[in-house]
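Allow me, if you will, to draw on your knowledge of protein folds for a short while. I have a record of one protein: its chain in single-letter code and its fold written as discrete structure tokens. I remain grateful for any guidance, and I place the record below:
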Amino acid sequence: MNNVKNILLLFVLCVQLSKCTNSVKPSDKTASAAAGDVVNSSPGDNSTEAETSQTDEREVTNTGERGHPGTGRRNVVTNACTPNPDSSTLGMTVIAQEETLWCWAACGEMVMEKVRGRNIDQCDEANRRFGMNDCCPPRGRPRPSACNQTSWPEFDKYDLRADMTICRALSWEEIKKQIDCKKKAICWTLRWTDDDGECGDIHNGTDTAGHMMVIFGYKIKENGDSVLKVLDPSPVSVGSTFQIKYSQYVCGPGYGHWNDFYNLRRR
């Protein structure tokens, strides 16, 4: 019965994805190239601010104490959370992808470890995703090339579930609530296009590749810009941390918005 449910779930997901793309491959480009295309885009309204995440802000804790800096203020009567309007950052550090096409596995590792509180190996994600058993070879032995493939994180295989957008960006308010009220990071996926306009049309072009990163904070800058803090698993074995304007998260020259995974929780 579970197998039938899984097959039906995958079928529904594929039908949904077909509405915005002809492929579900998120990362044919190397992850390092993916990060470079975003971080090194031209200056302007959609330019990326290659800043390191600020260290002078308090990290978000799970205490939920009223008035604690960087946390949402929870109304004890209605249990409704009002997120901090200015800034909030989850206590996370970047985890680099171990293979050129494993941005999805590295992002899965980052967000799942935040929820489960224990290590999730990228090679184990690949084993489970591709039905293999040799993606985690003993030290000194090579990893089969078949392990290095594109995919999406499979949270259900770790007794977790997540909500997902289909070719839609989360609103600024939705992001604030995820980060500051629910203390949850977001897996953000962009898709490369042949459209170099202000906002790349994901239907324009033959390139079905993309790149996944993790949003772990937000901030209103002194000049009024709304920015997001990003953990990028690329380059391989290194990773990077930077900030982007909210508008760049939505789309930009040469890329459009693919799918996001958010509200990750235990099943």
User: Anything to note?
Assistant: Strands lie at 73-74, 81-82, 87-89, 160-164, 186-192, 210-220, 226-232, 240-245, 255-266. The longest strand covers residues 255-266.
